[in-house]
Amino acid sequence: MRGTSKGITPDFNVAFVGTYIPRLCGIATFTNDIAKSVAEWYPDDAFENRYVRVVAMSNGVYSYPKEVFFDIREKFKTDYIKAAEFINISNVNVVSLQHEFGIYGGEHGSYVLDFLKNLKKPVVTTLHTVLEKPAEYQKEVLEEVCALSSRIVVCAQKAQEILERVYRIPTEKMSMIYHGAPDVPFMDPSYYKDMLNLEGKTVILTFGLLGPSKGIEYGIEALSKVHNDYPNAVYVVLGATHPEVKRIYGESYRVGLQKLAYEEGIADNVIFIDRYVSFEELMNFLIMADIYLTPYLSIEQIVSGTLTYAIAAGKAIISTPYWYAQEMLQDERGILVPFRDSDALSSALRRLLTDVPYRNRLRKNAYDFGRKMIWKNVSREYLELFDEAIRSYSKEKNFVYVLEKDIFEKENLQIKLPPVHLAHLKFLTDETGILQHALYNMPNRNHGYCIDDNARAFMALILYYELFKDQSILYLLYRFLSFIHNAFDEKSGKFLNFLRYDRTWIDDFSEDAHARTLLALSTAIQWPAVPELIPICATIFEKGIKQVVNFTSVRGISLSIIACDKFVRTYPGAKEIKDILIDLSDKLFALYKSNISDDWIFPEDILTYDNARQPQALIRAGQQLGNDEMIELGIKSLKWLIEIQTNPETEYLSIIGNRGWYPRGAQKAQFDQQPIELSSISCACIDAYFQTGDKYFYNTAMKALRWFLGENDSFCPVAKVETGGCYDGLEPQGVNKNMGAESTISYLMTLLHSYKLTFKRGD
Predict the structure, then answer these.
(1) Which end of the chain is more exposed for a tag (fewer CB within 10 A), N or C?
(2) Is the distance from CB of 112 to CB of 97 less than 8 angstroms?
(3) Does residue 491 surpass a pLDDT of 50?
(4) Where would I find the H helices in 396-437?
């Protein structure tokens, strides 16, 4: 996650799995609330942009809102497997599973295991029920749910203690996060009473889906015992009958409660509101309640959303001592009374009805404690846990290749490098050239071609041919060179940058792209795969080099210096090119000298991408011009650049991310990390190594390769060794699954640089 001036911004996508509105149940309400609260942390519409999604459990036909992108039929086992497969191919990075035995199919909800076993994403499971004395198979199911989850969330310490003692779940796998609640202002209960025709009444409230386990009968009996002294006290029972209770027993429980109120002589003081109210109505009822009552019958209730809401709303609460209530109502945040004891309940009611200062003290204590429970705070804790789960899940993946680290300490060194495959590069290339982008691994024709990528591909294959003499790739060399030739505009002396798929040029110029193309041409002049390449490349180079004398882009200047250096190394007598090299080198050196300080050794005030080209250019310029000061500053700058892009804990390269880059005096963006930076680091390290013989640069070049193979901040491979393809960026949860040209060529170049080092070839 990224920190911003407004808080945190998630850089991952979440899917919530559970029942969901409009289904009537507590889990559906929770899933809806946590999904919407998490969505609030995203800068844009998280549901519309699919940053947050929902997989809904269905036992009927529901008209779901837009965020539901898959629904699982409860009794269809195959649906659970299909849901997992669907999430696997989606942009979801982490799954938040709500676990309650009754909402999933199979014995004790065992079908959820089929979902988890087929899922290939980290899972954070929230346990809404934790039984101290489970049936044998219930225990097995819950243990396996926990084993298949990356992290477990409980809403009370008691649940954590039971999970450790009964289910043997490791402490480090669990997190305690409060059940969330809306942020309700601390208001006088009389505020909404007139709206609900309860003005002048003292309101006792119980809300939630109605069922026999709620113990409402004891609340009615308790009210009857204080009625004569407090005739204005009314008991509001708010909520529809639970759908499952209604399906099996009809309305017998509600009818029985109404009959009891009539028999106790308080029928006019017990108000049943038999419907599922909107959120706004519920908040009105909560605010106008003077006393909140939860007379539940089972001690094993480990969480209660209704009690959480009452605490956060600052209500004076009376409750039976089920586990969750025991924990939440400590420190004078409420009154606990024995189960099924209407006498004790009536005594507690009498005290709160009589002692208003005491009632207000309970309210204030509950409200202050409830600030921890508001959804904004709870959802932030969930986001932090999602981030942690993503990272730990990535760490568990095996690397594709493991290379030796301190290689100079080994005798008779034999490094087994990954094989060089060109399959994906060829797949991205058509008869025109290499396409810029891909959708997953499929070439995306909508974005056409660019000179940058075709120049990079040409340069990579020049190096490939120099190393392996593989004549089968010559047709590709000519294809990329033909693209470069076609991109050169004779009138302006500039390379056009973008070509639409219909082969019409977009009149766009980039100093960086122009210079990178010149570098590709000079590389081919230095290492010609076939002699006929030299006159073609030299002609285009000599026309295009004239533009660089007026460049202002530091990266464009640096790439041009490297290009001129390669040309002059091949043709030392090329005075015009050498003069340009001298002029640009002086300009770069001056930019360095005017901008550096003890903690910033770079010619610009921001680090973006392809940063190592600047120190590389300074090293090459110093070599060409016999200027030791330039070489020394280039080496110093490169080491500094490597140091600030190295994770101090893992010692892996941690590249500057493009989500904010690294402005001087600010914080370095960690993600998304771009493969192009590794290519420039490895190339610069080769020059530094052959200049200094310092094994530090040799090993750093190998670190650059290992970054692609899994030694990175997300601990997962970025390259697909078997095809030579490469994902477009490294994110905290793994990779951007698209495999475009720039990233693929960057991996190929880094791998080829490593081969160059092991073959001990120079420039």
Answers:
(1) C
(2) yes
(3) yes
(4) 423-427
Tokens read off for 54: 């929902």
Q: Classify residue 473 by its DSSP letter.
A: G
Strands 662-663 and 270-273: unpaired
Is the confidence at residue 763, as pLDDT, over 60? no
Cα 344 to chain centroid distance, Å, stands at: 51
The span from the CA of 561 to the CA of 578, in Å, is: 9
Please tell me the pTM assigned to this model: 0.67
- Residue 7, pLDDT > 70, answer no
| Alpha-carbon gap, residue 254 to 737, rounded angstroms | 54
Task: For residues 7 and 29, give the distance between their C-alpha atoms in angstroms, rounded to a whole number.
Answer: 26
Q: Given the structure tokens 């009891």, which residue do they identify?
A: 260
Residue with tokens 């999604």: 53
pLDDT of residue 571 exceeding 90, the answer is no
Using CB atoms within 10 A of its CB, is residue 106 exposed (0-12), middle (13-18) or buried (19+)?
middle
Mean pLDDT of 315-338: 95
Q: Kindly indicate the confidence band of residue 289, based on its pLDDT and cuts at 50, 70 and 90.
A: very high
Query: Regarding predicted confidence, which is higher, 532 or 563?
Result: 563
Q: pLDDT class for 5, splitting at 50, 70, 90?
A: very low
Query: Max CA-CA distance within the chain?
Result: 113
What are 151's strand-pairing partners?
124
The answer for residues whose C-beta is within 8 angstroms of residue 293's C-beta and 6 or more apart is 204, 205, 206, 219, 235, 317, 318, 319, 345
Please say whether the dihedral angle defined by the alpha carbons of residues 394, 399, 403 and 409, taken in this order, is positive or negative. Answer: positive
Q: Write the DSSP string, 211-268.
A: -GGG-HHHHHHHHHHHTTT-TTEEEEEESPBPHHHHHHHTTHHHHHHHHHHHHTT-GG
User: Which residue from 630, 541, 619, 647 is spatially nearest to 590, judged by alpha carbons?
Assistant: 630
Which percentage of the chain shows pLDDT scores above 90? 73
Burial (Cβ within 10 Å: 0-12, 13-18, ≥19) of residue 192: buried
- 413 pLDDT band, cuts 50/70/90, is very low
Distance CA(291)–CA(373), nearest Å, equals 20
Cα separation, 701 vs 312, whole angstroms: 56
Strand-pair partners of 154: 176
Backbone torsions φ then ψ of 281, nearest 5 degrees:
-65, -40
List own/partner pairs for 23-28 with CB under 8 A and 24 or more apart: 23/56, 23/57, 23/58, 23/59, 23/60, 23/62, 24/209, 24/240, 24/242, 24/243, 24/276, 25/103, 25/209, 25/242, 25/243, 26/128, 26/208, 26/209, 26/305, 27/98, 27/100, 27/103, 27/128
Taking each continuous run of H as one helix and of E as one strand, the counts in the chain are: 26, 27
Specify the 3-state DSSP secondary structure of 377. helix
Answer for the pair 521, 563: CB distance below 8 angstroms, yes or no.
Answer: yes
Scanning the structure block, which residue is given the tokens 């065992």?
A: 110
Residue matched to tokens 């040799």: 698
Distance CA 50, CA 68 (A): 10
- CB within 8 Å of 440: residues ≥ 6 apart: 737, 738, 739
**CA-wise closest residue to 98 among 80, 117, 124:** 124
Strand 233-238: give its sheet, edge to edge.
Answer: 270-273, 233-238, 202-207, 291-294, 316-319, 335-336
CA distance readout (Å), 28 to 47, 58, 279: 17, 11, 13
Peptide bond into 290 cis (omega under 30): no
State residue 1's pLDDT score. 61
> 172: exposed, middle or buried (C-beta count within 10 Å: 0-12, 13-18, 19+)?
exposed
Report the pLDDT value the prediction gives residue 245, as an integer from 0 to 100: 81
pLDDT value at 112 more than 50: yes
